[in-house]
Amino acid sequence: MSRKKTEWFEVEEGEKVEDCLERMAAAGYTVAGRREEPLFQEVDGEVIPVRQVIQFKGILKES
Predict the structure, then answer these.
(1) Domain limits, the chain
(2) How many CA atoms lie within 13 A of 44 on its CB side?
C-alpha cells in the first residue's frame, strides 16, 4: 500500500505540540511546515475565540 508523500497533522485538543511531533515521527514523517488559525464560536450573538488550531505539514521520510 502506498502512503501519501505529504500529510497534515493537527495538534488535538488537550495534546501538546511535542506529542503531535512524536506522532508524526512514529508515522514516518518529518516537519516541513506549520500553520495556525483561530477557532471561533458564536455565543449569544457574540463571537468568541475558543482555541488556536495548529497543524504541521509532514513529508514522508525516505526509506
Answers:
(1) 6-60
(2) 0
Distance CA 16, CA 27 (A): 17
| 3-class secondary-structure state, position 3 | coil
Q: Cβ–Cβ contacts within 10 Å for residue 60, how many?
A: 16
- What length is written for the chain? 63
Q: Where are the alpha helices (DSSP H) in the chain?
A: 17-26
Amino acid at 46: E
Per-residue DSSP letter, 5? S
The pLDDT tens digits for 2-44 are 678 999 999 999 999 999 999 999 999 999 999 999 999 999 9
For residue 3, give the C-alpha cell: 502512503
pTM: 0.81
